[in-house]
Amino acid sequence: MNDTPPDSLIPYDEIVQEALRAVVGRVLGQVEATNGVLPGNHHFYITFKTGAPGVSIPPELKARFPDEMTIVLQNKFWDLGVSEDGFTVSLSFNQMPAKLDVPFSAITAFVDPAVDFGLQFQAMDEDEFEDTAPAENDAQEREVASRVTPSEDGSNVVSVDFGKKK
After folding, report:
1. CA of 43: how far to CAs of 2, 20, 112, 119, in Å?
2. Is the pTM of this model over 0.85?
3. pLDDT score of 112 more than 90
4. In 11-161, which ranges are E strands?
5. What domains can be seen in the chain, in order of their start residue?
6. What DSSP letter does each residue of 17-41 carry, written as one string?
7. What is the end-to-end Cα distance of the chain in Å, rounded?
8. Which listed site, 16, 31, 71, 142, has its alpha carbon 20 to 30 Å from 24?
9. Sheet strands side by side (includes 117-120)
């Protein structure tokens, strides 16, 4: 009997990642609809890849954070705009205003510490940002390790990791 799961012709990993990133879009869209007013004590930490396609940040921030950065949407942010593909927001860095454009595909983590909720996404490779190639799930090249379980401390963190075998 073979314990190796069969190759999937359905790209489950991509579908799950897209759905979880849509959660971020829906939450930010609700905040946008209230003119940037966060309900209750909610606030967000959003981590994203600064070099991902479609990310637009000022050069000085790119120099300070060449790979990844985390922003906080809590008290001082403005001009939040949400589209189907991403969001824009203006923040202050060392008393200097900056506008950021971030596609949802660049996000690697979204956390709302007020309710102990978090999502973590696998980092996408450059070739994964392009939608032109069909997904290939070859069992010898791809190990699917997906876990959606509460963490040991009881928090509501959802971690999805479809890592490639090295």
Report:
1. 48, 18, 6, 14
2. no
3. yes
4. 44-49, 68-73, 77-82, 86-93, 96-103, 107-112, 117-120, 145-147, 156-161
5. 12-161 (2.30.30.220)
6. HHHHHHHHHHHHHHHHHTTTPPPTT
7. 26
8. 142
9. 68-73, 44-49, 107-112, 117-120, 156-161, 145-147
Tokens of 22: 């849509």
Residue with tokens 């930010």: 28
Residue 69's DSSP bridge partners are 48
Q: Residue 82 class from Cβ within 10 Å (0-12 exposed, 13-18 middle, 19+ buried)?
A: buried
Residue 125 makes CB contacts below 8 A (sequence gap 6+) with: none
Whether the CB-CB separation of 82 and 36 falls below 8 Å is answered with no
